[in-house]
Amino acid sequence: MRQDIESWFAKRDKNITIKHDKSLSGRPGEILMIYSGATKGAHFKIHVDSLFTLVGSSINAPSYLRNLNLYVDKRDFKK
Q1: What is the CATH number of the domain that holds 40?
Q2: Which pTM value belongs to this model?
Q3: Tally of structural domains, the chain
Q4: pLDDT tens string 7-62
């Protein structure tokens, strides 16, 4: 998922650079990640929340993306 998010931003806007900061543990089927982003005049944090549908209980069971949210908190935005 990290590779998909980074490649999407690289294709979408070449002026934005992002770097993965950390991943947080959520409930089973939930991934929480934080990225640092920058343009020429601004620095910001991008929060990614995603939910997956789990098909089985084993560690190698397939899962399917159900919901993905990206947001920037205005308190994390600096010029």
Answers
A1: 3.10.450.630
A2: 0.81
A3: 1
A4: 998 899 889 999 999 998 788 889 999 999 999 989 999 999 999 888 877 778 78
pLDDT of residue 73: 85
Sheet holding 17-25, edge to edge: 17-25, 30-38, 43-54, 63-71
Domain of residue 39 covers 2-76
pLDDT at 44: 94
Residue type, 6: E
Taking the chain, what is the end-to-end CA distance rounded to the nearest angstrom?
29
Question: Residues with Cβ < 8 Å from 19, sequence gap 6 or more?
Answer: 35, 36, 37
Q: How far is it, in rounded angstroms, from Cα 3 to Cα 24?
A: 17
Q: Give the residue from 1, 46, 3, 52 showing the smallest Cα distance to 26.
A: 52
* One-letter amino acid for residue 9 of the chain: F
